[in-house]
């Protein structure tokens, strides 16, 4: 299940930084590892001083803030034992191109760090780390709490080698999380006494935060049991459902566009649902289901889809032109397949939009195949054929597939 969330999104979701996720958790009563975000080494030192005054911590953790996990493996999480360490480590991390298993080989530039209190207490060894996440099981249509005694580790590795150490608690949407379920989770994690009671409160608050924010996933790795039996979130990876952000203006304001693909950001501003892929055939389609079918037909024709791009049900000349600009930013695109079903929108209007966009953009260096089906499809094909532009038209999907094969040959 978690492998889906590690990959590039198809379902629209917004990611936020660890420090932002922790602030949401804290607002719902989840105990967290306290921290202060900093943009410069100087701010990092001031943050460390403030944390020392507020929490009494004498050591600090300097944590790179990027939208990716595995930061520690890439050198993005360091322990500072003095204020001088805080400054020098912040200088190393801020501005670095951090490469983790989730960033790909290109990595991500670190623009800020979180200065967090040390919660492992020097000299103490009576701590335990757990894994916990709340997410939607799309196959069952229910939320689940996934948890394990193997915290601080890559959960996929745990699932592969020791699957018996991963537990799942399914939540009935009619009644929500029940008290016995939270107690079961604490019991399965081997907790007793005060730690058991604190974990029950932790699970209830975590699930409340997940539901109230319309999240797609809350992942905490690790959840820490301190040596004095307190349960707290040391990390927070949060995915939020973009379709629900209109209900959460405060959370929508947390968006960090510098962490996102610039082309996807630009597409979003034009109300286009765009995801970049690794192929050579650009796709422009109305409707997510038709887009998936279009990518399948491209594969069958011997090509590879270069993107997922849904222009929506009311494609206009302006929308089509914006989509062309987005697709052509990818140098790997060798052809563009436009596949529109005219239901809400008439095919001849889309065809005219394609012609207008083509003329406005000027020279488009790759062949364009336009397949229009539905209302006024015949009139649309005539418009395309008589436009004099380097555009191939088709009505049947198999004809479009054959044209894709032809232009790629």
From TrEMBL:
Cofactor section: Mg(2+)
Which positions in this protein are listed as binding substrate? 286, 343-345
Positions annotated to bind Mg(2+) = 221, 235
Q: What InterPro entries has UniProt attached to this entry?
A: ATP-grasp_succ-CoA_synth-type (IPR013650), ATP_grasp_subdomain_1 (IPR013815), Succ-CoA_synthase_bsu_CS (IPR017866), SUCC_ACL_C (IPR005811), Succ_CoA_ligase-like_bsu (IPR005809), Succinyl-CoA_synth-like (IPR016102)
Q: Which keywords, in A-to-Z order, does the entry hold? A: ATP-binding, Ligase, Magnesium, Metal-binding, Nucleotide-binding, Tricarboxylic acid cycle
Please name the Pfam families in this protein's record. ATP-grasp_2 (PF08442), Ligase_CoA (PF00549)
Pathway annotation from the record: Carbohydrate metabolism; tricarboxylic acid cycle; succinate from succinyl-CoA (ligase route): step 1/1
Boundaries of each ATP-citrate synthase/succinyl-CoA ligase C-terminal domain copy?
Answer: 284-402
* Family that this chain belongs to: Belongs to the succinate/malate CoA ligase beta subunit family.
- What is the protein's known function? Succinyl-CoA synthetase functions in the citric acid cycle (TCA), coupling the hydrolysis of succinyl-CoA to the synthesis of either ATP or GTP and thus represents the only step of substrate-level phosphorylation in the TCA. The beta subunit provides nucleotide specificity of the enzyme and binds the substrate succinate, while the binding sites for coenzyme A and phosphate are found in the alpha subunit.
Q: How does it assemble?
A: Heterotetramer of two alpha and two beta subunits.
**What protein name is recorded for this chain?**
Succinate--CoA ligase [ADP-forming] subunit beta
Task: Supply the source organism for this entry.
Answer: Solitalea canadensis (strain ATCC 29591 / DSM 3403 / JCM 21819 / LMG 8368 / NBRC 15130 / NCIMB 12057 / USAM 9D) (Flexibacter canadensis)
